Amino acid sequence: VIFGGGIPTGGFSGAVVQQASSGMLGLNNGGDTVTLEDDIGAFLTNVSYGSEGGQDQSLTRNPDLSGSFSQHTSVSPTVYSPGTKVDGTPFDTCEPGEPTPSPT
Length: 104
Description:
Layout: E1 2-3, E2 18-19, E3 32-37, E4 43-49, E5 59-62, E6 68-71
Parallel strand pairs: 1-2
Antiparallel strand pairs: 3-4, 5-6
């Protein structure tokens, strides 16, 4: 779970909790692309979203992990579920794998 700033509080079901390296997140309500890089700046993955992001709630995958992005309240009574599945239960424990870079 990545926060744009402040001091995150809560358990987040044991998920790794980090702050953005810049101390803020500048996501646009009208759409944006989020890119993840490793610690040396190599591309890992990215995801884009459109105007559905500007509705004062999280976007979530439905079903969890593999589905397309949906507004959180379309699949849950809550507006977010940081570090948990959309129903609030923890994700199964798994060992992190080695990132597989995309071809350039």
